[in-house]
Amino acid sequence: MPRAWPPRPTSSSTPVARSRRVITLTQSTPVATPDFIIAGAAKCGTTALWHYLDAHPEVGMTYIKEPRFFTEAKGGMAHGVVDAAIPRSGTYHRGWDWYDELWRDAPEGGTRGEASTIYFVAQDAPRLIRQHVPDVRLIMMVRDPADRMYSHYWQEQKAGWDMGPFRDLVDTDHPRERYFETTSHYKANIERFLEHFDRDQIMVIVKEDLDNEPERILEEVFRFIGVDPAFRPASIGNRFNVQRLPRFPWIRRLSERLRATVGVALPHPVRQAFGRTQRKLERRLSVPNAYPPLEPDLRATLIERFEEDIRYIEQWVGRPRPSWRAIHPTEAAGKTPPASPEATR
User: Which of 12, 26, 43, 320 is the most buried (most CB within 10 A)?
Assistant: First the structure.
């Protein structure tokens, strides 16, 4: 028997459907659903794409990135994580009222979207998304898998979680290592979504292409989700989610907990002011994270591990990725070959 939607609290007011697509969960409760979802992967430019899409006048993004709604996975940032070693728990149990409220600032009738990188690795995410939003458009972002894994490691070091040297972590069965590596296995993760969705519902974007050709990639994204492809965000070229190391890791962890709990419950103007103050404080209490380059022998090991995933993405986007196989990525940096006629996004 199909699982019922999370319970919706009784309310005297009737919610307004703000999307062009509406599903009916009960006879009297119309519920608007997202038109597209950025489903990952982490450390692949999803924050930049979220900002670009949020700037489009026809698009309404959830006011927080990473709502993590379409999964019941249990996780945590501590070492004893469970359920595919994901970092945070899903929010499916909070119900639709909570999820729908995340679009309270979205334009009426606009195209609605959200971005949750946890979906890329959460085993139940494709099933739950298909169950409730079968016609949704899915955007998957990828990058050099070895670089992605290494960047992910340093992001969590930045957040104050000391996992020891990256080299030692790679050679262990530590749950964080499993999470980092699993996220870079693009083929298995995308194939899991293809069990529930048609290929033409999924767009794969390579981060390096978005960095080097943002206008071309954004035009393709806008066409894919059905909005004006001629729009160009003023923020093109800006850097988002730049890594910094905290001077006091415990303050950073406290700040993240406040953002995840108190921050989302505040009224919109207060929440915006809270976010600006929080970002300024975090910047003052951190330093630029110029982490060392990945050691050549370790990079060679990871390239071998991810060879199948590299070939899979090359076939999907219709162009080779020479820098992904370079021991020193700068050898092939900037040498993006032209797309083949059969390229698919």
Answer: 43
Give the residue ranges of DSSP H helices in the chain: 46-55, 96-101, 125-132, 145-158, 166-170, 175-184, 186-194, 207-212, 214-225, 249-258, 264-265, 268-284, 296-305, 307-317
What distance, in Å, lies between the first and last C-alpha atoms of the chain?
35
- At position 286, the amino acid (one-letter code) is S
Using one digit for the tens of pLDDT, what is the confidence trace for 151-178?
A: 999 888 877 677 889 999 998 888 888 8
Task: Name the nearest CA neighbour of 151 among 107, 103, 184.
Answer: 184
Residues 23-241+307-331, CATH architecture: 3-Layer(aba) Sandwich (3.40)
HEC sequence for 297-342: HHHHHHHHHCHHHHHHHHHHHCCCCHHHHCCCHHHCCCCCCCCCCC
Domain boundaries along the sequence of the chain: 23-241+307-331
Classify residue 112 by its DSSP letter. E
d(CA 193, CA 134): 12
Whether the pLDDT of residue 64 is over 80: the answer is yes
Tokens of 39: 């489903």
CA distance 184 to 48: 19
